[in-house]
Design brief:
Number of strands: 9
Low-confidence stretches: none
Distance between the termini: 14 Å
CATH architecture of the largest domain: Alpha-Beta Complex
Structural class: alpha/beta
Number of helices: 10
Largest sheet: 6 strands, mixed
Strand content: 5-15%
CATH topology of the largest domain: 2-enoyl-CoA Hydratase, Chain A, domain 1
CATH superfamily of the largest domain: 2-enoyl-CoA Hydratase, Chain A, domain 1
Radius of gyration: 19 Å
Order of helices and strands: EEHEHEEHEEHHEHEHHHH
Number of domains: 2
Shape: globular
Length: 271
């Protein structure tokens, strides 16, 4: 089925900028630098890359929820530590598996449902999480901005994901002005799935995650990997590629179990 990594482990690892918990096939990765508005420093970057690789490699993980502590979801890159300067904060023993640039790639290529649970404002590079997750739900008071232009910087790394979820005119205006948009506007522009009352965010994300975790896990991985692969293909070559993936899917254990369960009028039992 979908490509996988050698299964990673969390045993003996000390995450200092994240909290991880796995329950009912749902891995919750929580950004845990609220005193710095969850800004991404080198330690957090490395921990995120390992956590995303872990999520991809471990069979028991079917869904990832990306959440955050504090009032701000994420302030983007930590300007205090860019270029190697400033206080790097507490160090962790997480093995190094990539550079900061790899965060979006790792997130996009987990090939499992990833839900961004946005409880507060999203700034700058934090848009990488929102654009490259498969789902995003935000509290109605949250807002989103790419303010880099106001600092003489352009949000280069954000563009790859942003223009795959927002249309060009809205996306360009968003990054050219650097002005914030509301959670409701983010929904209209396609940046997030839904703006919800803050006191309903937990319930909606939990319900969505549980639904996704109940579905055929290997087929989900194959489908998302195929979706990413065909996204930029020309139409004509895409069709035979998709046909080959359909054939692969129909021969899979998930498909056989799903069809058998349907015929036997019972719920499927996924391995």
């Amino acid at each position: 089925m979908a490509d996988t990594l050698e299964e990673l482990s969390l045993e003996g690892l000390n995450f200092t900028t994240l909290k991880l918990s796995l329950n009912d096939h749902i891995l919750t990765i929580t950004l845990n630098r609220p005193e710095r508005k969850n800004a991404i420093n080198p330690v957090m970057s490395n921990e995120l890359i390992y956590a995303f690789d872990y999520a991809k490699s471990v069979r028991d993980v079917r869904v990832v929820v990306l959440a955050a502590m504090g009032d701000v979801f994420c302030a983007g890159g930590d300007l205090r530590t860019m270029g190697g300067g400033g206080d790097q904060g507490p160090q962790s023993n997480i093995p190094k598996r990539g550079e900061t640039d790899d965060i979006a790639l790792r997130l996009r290529h987990i090939h499992k449902p990833v839900i961004a649970k946005i409880q507060g404002p999203v700034y700058a590079g934090a848009l990488l999480f929102v654009c490259n997750a498969t789902h995003a739900y935000a509290a109605d008071h949250a807002h989103f901005s790419a303010p880099e232009i106001k600092r003489g910087i352009w949000p280069f790394m954000v563009m790859a994901g942003l223009f795959r979820v927002m249309n060009k005119r809205q996306g360009l205006d968003f990054i050219m002005r650097g002005e914030r948009i509301t959670s409701e506007q983010a929904t209209l522009y396609g940046l997030i799935n839904q703006s919800v009352p803050a006191d309903e965010l937990d319930e909606i994300v939990s319900r969505t995650a549980a639904t996704l975790a109940s579905l055929a896990p290997a087929t989900m991985q194959l489908g998302l990997a195929t979706y990413n692969a065909q996204e930029d293909m020309e139409f004509d070559p895409a069709l035979p590629y998709l046909r080959s993936k359909l054939d692969e899917c129909l021969k899979s254990a998930d498909a056989q179990e799903g069809i058998t369960a349907f015929l036997e009028k019972r719920d499927p039992k996924w391995d």
